[in-house]
Amino acid sequence: MTNAHAAGAHMQAELASQPDTWERAFGMRAEQQLLPAAGARVAVVGCGTSWFMAQSYAFLRESGGFGVTDAFAASENFVNRGYDAVVALTRSGTTSEVLELISGLDSSVHTIGVIGDPESPLVNMVDDAVLLPFADEKSVVQTRFATTALALFRASLGEDLTGAIADARTALADVDPTLAAAEQYSFLGRGWTVGLAHEAALKMRESSQSWTESYPSMEYRHGPIAIAAPGRITWQFGAAPEGLRGQVEATGARFVEHAIDPMADLARLHQVALDRSLAAGLDPDQPRNLTRAVILDA
């Protein structure tokens, strides 16, 4: 027991609520209109999980014909080069690198914050704040805020999330317990799901201190497949490149690919991460060396 609650209790409740929070974000038409209009040149920034969701949004927006869209880690960026708008994604609204980036932008750049905590300082620093307090979390390990923000982004681009929501309900109700028992995990994605792969690897590292790696699917064959072996899992988000399954299975590793919306598959991974953490006697609500937000001393 930690902090008078069962280990992982917050993470369990929060990851299980994802279909409901996605449904709510899907219906937030007014808030979606605050996001950059078609044709705008946009940079999307964040740290950790938020950076990976920024990558997914950037790919979907640009590939969908809505305009040039780049994703940056807030600590490593080139945002002062002609962007019309900067979207900052942050659960806490207090992350030092994000606040520093926003405060340093030229006043001509329109700023939009997608934020979990409505009382955070970022709310008053941006031109428009999209608030998602219903998706905020108590667990340090982030699950529903990230995917709810991505649901909002996808809906703003005209996607119908009905299928994704249904897939998530099904996936969370039926998680294969053997998925939590591998020695090592490699997560792969293509296009917008590369960000999901990076996020899946981070989730497993944060929650259970597991050995995880992540790559674009086609890059996996350029070296990283060397670690594939019996007792290890290669997990593909979305459709795999032709022939990849066979190459992985030839090593003796297990190839995991679910024919569902990739965001729903990430929700499934969240449950696997929790299960693995608890099996190791850990508490993902209070993971080793981590805090809810990174706030650096001046």
Automatic annotation (TrEMBL):
Molecular function, one GO term: carbohydrate derivative binding
PROSITE patterns linked to this entry: SIS
UniProt cross-references to InterPro entries, sorted A to Z: GlmS/AgaS_SIS, SIS_dom, SIS_dom_sf
Any GO BP: carbohydrate derivative metabolic process
Q: Which SUPFAM superfamilies match?
A: SIS domain
Q: Which residues form the SIS domain?
A: 30-171
Q: Which residues belong to the signal peptide in this entry? A: none
The protein's name in its UniProt record = SIS domain-containing protein
